Amino acid sequence: YIFKEGEGLYATASYANNGLGVSLGFKRYDNFFFKSQRESDLQQLFINYLPSLTTLHTYTLPALYSFNTQGNGEMGFQGEISYNFKRNTLFGGKYGTLLTLSYANSYSLDKDYKLRPRYSPADTTIIDSVLRGSQGYSSSFLGRGPYTYFQDFHMEIKKKLSKNWRATATYYNFVYNFSTLIKGASDYDYDAAGSEPDIFTVNAGVLELLYKIKPRHSLRTEIQGLFTEGDRGDWALLLLEYSIAPSWFFAIQDAYNYGNPEEDLQIHYLSTNVGYSFGTTRFQLGYGRQQQGVFCVGGICRIVPASNGFTFSVTSNF
């Protein structure tokens, strides 16, 4: 263990006027996490909360590659601009159009590790290097390290097409450090082993259509595609959700991992859900095969493990 004092800086600024919205953010965390068990994985058993600047995506396929904050050390920037094109203009059309562009990144700190060689007990052969002293390393406050952890660019267009139709189209581009964000490896692990992290690019697109059938009754459709050469490969998803406001919803979803490099795992994750809301409490019953990740249906998002069978959940606000 080291006894280096932790540092944390999180700053945001925003501006809004006449349909234009702009937000900027900066964060820097250095040895700034508190855990109930020191030996656990870097992404588990946190006591303190370290906010992320990246967007929490709620569509199922983009949410498969979400970012988790690196309390061991990271720096990042975020910028977002949105503009509401007014009605009866070239881009606004009859009902107006909302356009949002967002970019965020996270990368390692510029660390100078204090190392000493560790020798074999049998001879003077150097086995590896270990941290020396109580501080472990020093870091430059604004220095950027060599490793990218995450990069997120997405563009979203929201538009009312008619009295009964609404559409949302979104494009995503991620740079994803699988070794750090999933396996929990740190920049020290890469330096000590002389290895490079497993980083790949993810492209995804989502089209959401909402049709108002009659008062209180609506049908929502999601068509999603995700394309990557890393991890589990390409995905396609179709969701149909029928809602009766303010209490009921019925949904069926099929996520197909058709691009998995293991042919036996190119399977359909078909599931159905029904939910009922009473006051501030929602009851939800589901059945089917569920992939691991963030699952969103009926306006509620939650992290779920891979499963096959029945699920029942109760969500309430107090």
Notes on the structure:
The chain is mainly beta. It has two domains: 7-194 and 211-227, no CATH class; 232-318, no CATH class. Helix content is 3%, strand content 59%. The chain is built from two helices and 17 strands. The strands form three sheets. A 13-stranded antiparallel sheet has the order 1-2-3-4-7-8-9-10-11-12-13-14-17. The protein has a two-stranded antiparallel ribbon with strand order 5-6. Strands 15-16 form a two-stranded antiparallel sheet. A hairpin with a 6-residue loop joins strand 5 and strand 6. The longest helix has 7 residues, at 187-193. The chain starts with 6 loop residues before the first strand and ends with a strand.
Poorly predicted segments: none
Q: Termini separation (Å)?
A: 41 Å
From the alpha carbons, calculate the radius of gyration and give it in angstroms.
Answer: 23 Å
Helix proportion range: under 10%
Count of the domains = 2
Going across the major beta sheet, what is the strand order? Answer: 1-2-3-4-7-8-9-10-11-12-13-14-17
**Proportion in β-strands:** over 45%
Number of extended strands: 17
Series of H and E elements = EEEEEEEEHHEEEEEEEEE
Briefly note the structural class of the backbone: mainly beta
Please give the largest β-sheet. 13 strands, antiparallel
Number of helices: 2
| Overall 3D form | globular
For the residues shown, what is the average pLDDT? 88
